[in-house]
Amino acid sequence: LKKMRDKHWLSDWREETKTALLDACHENTVRISTELYLAETPAQTLQYFFESCYGPTAGWTDALWELRDSVFAEYSLIPEEMPFHVPSVRRFNLMKNYTLTLFDGGEYPEELTEAFSDPHLAGWACQSGALRLDESARGERAGDGLAAFEKNGKRQLVQLISQEGQWVACPIGTNALYPAGDYRIIFDTQHLYFAIQYRLRDDETAAFYVTPEHVRNEKEYQIRCKFCNYERVNQKTGEAVWIGVNDRDMPTWQKEQAPDDQPYPVVQFPDSLGVMPITEFPTTLEAARQYTYPGIPEGYAFSLGVNLRAQRSSRSKTYGELKPGTLLPTLERLPGDPNEWIHTKVGFLEGFVVDTYVQLRASALPAVETQKEIPLKKGMGLFDGTVQTLPAGTKMHVIIDNGDWLYVDVPRGDIEYLMDVEGTFGYVRKADVRFLPTPAGVDWAD
Question: Is 208 exposed, middle or buried (0-12, 13-18, 19+ CB in 10 A)?
Fold first, then answer.
């Protein structure tokens, strides 16, 4: 604030003075809010400078309100809200080496033209999105982003990946967005999350904080939009809700951790956005505290990623490492040193896993699709028999990756976000299938 006065940044308002203010924020490790980047007037700049330092107004003290009002009076300014939508393409330097691009109102950056020409997006109109690019990065994580599309009253979310200067669009699905309501995609600089933000009322917003992730398998991508937290804030009443999914970060409006006897709830909801309709997410504290993970058969839990052993020993034969998200029945618990072992069975593979690698929270299993008619084998040997023949286009979950062979679960019906514990199990050659881009194997929307 002293530098603002000395440099006359607000009294002599120009684009250069705003740039100087942003540079000063970077130097003093202030995590600049998206709104401060977008601010176009001295009043907007001052308001969102305060919010960059202290978070949304829902968490402000009376003393902080008095300080803000006194500074506004000093410059003869009236507080001015930023519009929810700013139709444009805007770029900013986000910390060292990072460039943030925000686009809204149907406009999008030129570098996405080829990605958006994907035939699956024909007829779909881009509504909003954000890109984060590491200018110094080399390799797979050079850039990521999200974009929302609409067509004939439907919505879908798309994940964007930058690889060697080329942006690629991959589907997250129609389950990832509310089917109605005003919304936008922004980037939260406090937690470094992307955010899908909804305007519920004039003074109330809700945000789903997510982190796009991906791995490249041969020539194809497997993506995961990690669902981290949910937040709802009423700027007028100060009422605010924070619900964790995959992280226990503090809310944007609170600087101190909640008391141990009043923790923020962490719900057992799928931590990959899009595998379950977002409309089923509990958005009140009461509902979140009563929520249980949907669809788990009684007596089952999820693998965290653990070897399935033939005996109760870490030195015994392994059938391979079970993918995180594999559903495991607890047939019996047996003593071990130092941890117990769980006797379990996945398809026709029966063995033991250490109980510390089993939990009630799911990770999404990878999914593959046959590229032609192939046999589902009983084993990986040349003379192992065939369980059944799989037609081209059959989708299945991957349970174990054994290099050239995959141990898979073929569901009885359409593939869903949970594996089918009563499905048909067997081995397929990795060369005969392709990995689906999304964990649940959903097809691109029509």
Answer: buried
